[in-house]
Amino acid sequence: MPAPEDPPLARNIGSFFGHIIDAIVTDPNAPKRVEVKKTVSEEQRPDGVTLRRTVIDEVLLPPDAPTPPPANDKHTH
Hints:
Layout: H1 9-25, E1 32-44, E2 50-61, E3 75-76
């Protein structure tokens, strides 16, 4: 399998400015969301359709609360 190519310069510049714009429009006083658990279940149907359900458990912290480290227990079923 060939190695993936690096993204082109235009994409890197767009990503850079996208992050800057996101930082400008994000409210720093908004509650912090911390992902606690993510569960993904997937089912292959006989007709070739894949059904996927993703459940994300989050905790909303007040803006002045310290951000705890993210949980490492990602479950996939």
